[in-house]
């Protein structure tokens, strides 16, 4: 198993995207009722690679919400061995505890990882188009700043592999929601034809971070498109797969 690291990895924090296809083998990381035994084995292999175990990992059951949850080591194993005890309807998790790996699932939706240096805190966020237009990334970031004491100038962010604007066709139903966001979004979509637009969801997410005071040089935007790089990633739009990629983050010490 190989991992794609964000550029801010150091002795304190590490974040990765786990590719779906590695040397001809599939690494689905999400329970889907089809190959759940293999998913568990894949998660065990990931834990071994990270030098940890499944009881030091947490995975939510995402529902395209703007709900977020603080977790700690007592939550280790939740949503990892099965979905039965996963925290339902939370699309973002954050923690101050070390050696607790946070999962976020995606297959064209955007994973966002945060590390706050001054509060020694990490977060993993799932932002599909619904989460993007309802500004989950901005809401989580503001919560960390206003309620958890995070200094925005010490926040580092990763906007991970997801569908790129050149492939993200959207119609008026989505664009109408984009237009209702809390900032000027007109530069983040372009008209393709009479009924379709191209939507820059990564750009919308980055702007939410900038609006919260996160420094541009502290934001990494992945160049990968999940639709185009299907040799690496699962893409729902391309294949309607039930499999999911994951991105993860943890404090090492």
Brief rundown of the structure:
The protein has 253 residues and is α+β, with helices and mostly antiparallel strands. The chain is 22% helix and 25% strand. The chain has helices spanning 36-50, 129-133, 136-147, 172-179, 201-211, 236-239, and strands at residues 4-5, 13-18, 21-22, 25-26, 57-58, 68-70, 92-95, 101-106, 110-116, 121-127, 155-159, 169-170, 189-191, 197-199, 219-221, 245-251.
Q: What can be said about the biggest beta sheet?
A: 6 strands, mixed
Could you name the CATH homologous superfamily? CNF1/YfiH-like putative cysteine hydrolases
Mean pLDDT across residues: 96
Radius of gyration (CA) equals 17 Å
CATH topology (level 3) name: CNF1/YfiH-like putative cysteine hydrolases
CATH class identity = Alpha Beta
Shape: globular
Report the end-to-end length measured between terminal Cα atoms: 24 Å
Our estimate of the beta-strand percent is 25-35%
Describe it.
Belongs to the purine nucleoside phosphorylase YfiH/LACC1 family. Keywords: Hydrolase, Metal-binding, Transferase, Zinc. Pfam families: Cu-oxidase_4. The protein is α+β, with helices and mostly antiparallel strands. The chain has a single domain, classed as CNF1/YfiH-like putative cysteine hydrolases (4-Layer Sandwich). It contains 6 helices and 16 strands. A hairpin with a 7-residue loop joins strand 1 and strand 2. The longest helix has 15 residues.
